Amino acid sequence: MATLTQRNHPDPAEFQKVLGARLVMMKRAQGLAMTALQTDLADLMKEILAPYTADHLVQISGPAFTLIGEAASAIALVTHELATNATKYGALSRLGGELEVSWSILPSQANPKEFEFRFVWLERNGPAVIPPSRRGYGTVMMNGTVRNSFGGSVAFDYDPKGLKCEISAPLTSRLGHIATS
């Protein structure tokens, strides 16, 4: 993150200001996920991705959804890992890069009487995506975290036009619930 910030903000005073703001936002997002019994998913995404909105188009959308503590922490960790990789290799590594984060609640394909949570991370206008030659720590960590926290799975699509990561999970009390007013 520091390298990207320095690349886009070479003036030392501006660099310090922007990097400081990004670090504060990361700390706030992690604190929100780690301490709250329940966390609004949209608020969590806005907190985690706020450091990148100054230099990139970041779109966040989905129905009102409340994550339970451990699920919020898992989603925060995965989102942070995706954002870190996007700043190194993907759409957040260059000006003009775009990121769309969305989620939905859909009928389960296995049982239409049950529902499934789907979270999608989609990058655009970054460098051409090259599939990794091996599964790295980040991929293993994301899969394990999502599986162990709320019974979900993670899938990647390494489209040359932009990385797509999709998290799917049964809509259960381990994950969260649709927020009601």
Automatic annotation (TrEMBL):
<dbReference type="GO" id="GO:0004673">
    <property type="term" value="F:protein histidine kinase activity"/>
</dbReference>
<protein>
    <recommendedName>
        <fullName>histidine kinase</fullName>
        <ecNumber>2.7.13.3</ecNumber>
    </recommendedName>
</protein>
<dbReference type="InterPro" id="IPR036890">
    <property type="entry name" value="HATPase_C_sf"/>
</dbReference>
<dbReference type="GO" id="GO:0005524">
    <property type="term" value="F:ATP binding"/>
</dbReference>
<keyword id="KW-0067">ATP-binding</keyword>
<keyword id="KW-0547">Nucleotide-binding</keyword>
<keyword id="KW-0418">Kinase</keyword>
<keyword id="KW-0808">Transferase</keyword>
<keyword id="KW-0597">Phosphoprotein</keyword>
